[in-house]
Amino acid sequence: MSTQTLPELDTRPEGTDTTGDDTPKMFHYVRKEKIAESAVMGTHVVALCGEVFPVTKSPKPGSPVCPDCKKIYESLPMGGE
Known about the structure:
Blueprint: H1 32-41, E1 44-46, E2 52-54, H2 67-75
Antiparallel strand pairs: 1-2
């Protein structure tokens, strides 16, 4: 019987906007009703820009926002669904 050591693999999904300490580089706009579901159930949400990810952090005031999400959000009609 022989054994071998597997190489260390990076298991983070590609395309995520995170830094080395798992803090997002920027935050995205997502549907409000999906945030709690994602945080509790671990389901993925889809941001306005199309990024797909599970909600793991809450933005703090002054946190960087995805420029694509911000542009799309600002183009939406006020007070609508």
